[in-house]
Every structure is written in C-alpha cells, then in structure tokens.
Amino acid sequence: MTKRPAPPLDDQPSFIEDERGFFAETFSKPKPAKKAMAPAKQEAAAHYHGHRDRVRAKYREHGDTSLADYEILEMLLFRSIPQRDTKPLAKALLERFGTLAGVFGAPIGLLQEIKGVGESVALDLKLIGTAGQRMLKSEIRNKQVLSSWSSVIDYCNAVMAYETREQFRILFLDKRNALIADEVQGHGTVDHTPVYPREVVRRALELSSTAIILVHNHPSGDPTPSRADIDMTKTIVDTAKSLGITVHDHIIIGKDGHVSFKGLRLI
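Predicted structure:
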C-alpha cells in the first residue's frame, strides 16, 4: 500500500495548531515563586518544633517521671494539633479539669468549651481515656476480684468518678468470685439514680452469678452515702440473700475518693 504524503502544515486541522499553542504556553510559563514565610512566623514555627523535640528527648532519656502532667498532655496533643504550640492548651485543660484523669473523663461537650479544642481533639482525648479504662478492666477480668481489690477501685474510679450524672453499676461474679459481667443498670440525675432491687437480682440469676458488687457515683465529688443509699442497699442485700446471691460490697465513687459499705460496716 502506498503511503499518502502528509499534508502541508497549512492544511493541518486547526485543533493541532491549538494544541501546539497550548503546550508551548504551558511549558513556557514560569512557575510562581514560593512566598517566603514572614520572619515572625518562621520564629514561631521554629519555637514550637524545637520545643516538641526537647520534650520528646526528655521523655526518651529520662522517662515519664521527668515530665509534668501538662507536658504529658502536650505530647498527646502533638499529633492532634500538628501546626500549633500545644503547651497553652494543655495547661488550660488541666486548669479547667484539675488532673489528667479529669481531662480524659470529661464529657466531649465540656472539653469543647476550651478554646482550641474542636470535636476532633475532644474525640482523641476521649479515646485515650477509653484505652486507659480498657487496660484497667483487663486487670480484673476473669480474675478473683476480692484478691484484686485495688484494681477494682482503680477501674471504678476511671469509669465513674467524672460522670456528670449518677450511674448505677453492678459487677457480677461467679462462684470463684471472678468477674463475668460489668453492667450499667441505670443513669439518673446529678443526685439520684432509680434502682430496682428485683431487677438487680433477676439479672444476677440470668447470668448465673452467685455474688455481686454494687457501685455508683456521686457527681458532687463527696462519696458519703445518703440515707437513701443505705436503705436501698439493705433491700438489695435482703432480696439477694433469699436467692443465694451474696452482695460483697457497695462502693460509692466520687472525685474526692471512695467509700465502701463493708468498710463502714453497713453490710
């Protein structure tokens, strides 16, 4: 087959001319120069990056005992807020909530009241708190709870001390006093949670639990039992005993500490 000669350039379709012009223009355009960072911004960026490196080095070389609480919180915020100095925010959080436990236990809505804490940062803080709670719970799961009492208290403090409403929780134990279930039976107001003794016992029977530990919190911070707490506990103890279920203790958790009904000889 004889090849036909290419038509002269003048006869080429116009879109080819347009295409040549486009690429010629594209490659001939100089790239815009990057704007230089203002000296003040350069100094600020260098400041917090250098500070982060120093805090990391301090932790790496000397461990957690070398860091103040605000520095630990700073390091946790590094990844949530990569482009800003996190020291002022860490200090503001501790000033508002008192302790690291208070920060991680605070509701998302209250965390977001702090300037600089958006939803993403608040969720990151709550996730850290949740991880800590899961670690503490793993210390008592499938273990004899009565021989790990300090771990029980640590766990209950972590999950309940900073709740803004009363919460009634039950730890269900088997015949070896090992934890088989941990359930919240009800939420209430800032100073009251409705508790139904028959429902408590019914749930224990469903789980084949032979012993239980009652736990609730006082959002006021003061764990002192009220008259209603004492009367309600006595009713549960009497109802459970008739069905072969032992109530080992009733613990009240507050930000200012905890009390044990057994320790107060109320059980």
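Summary: Strands lie at 167-173, 179-187, 211-217, 246-254, 257-260.
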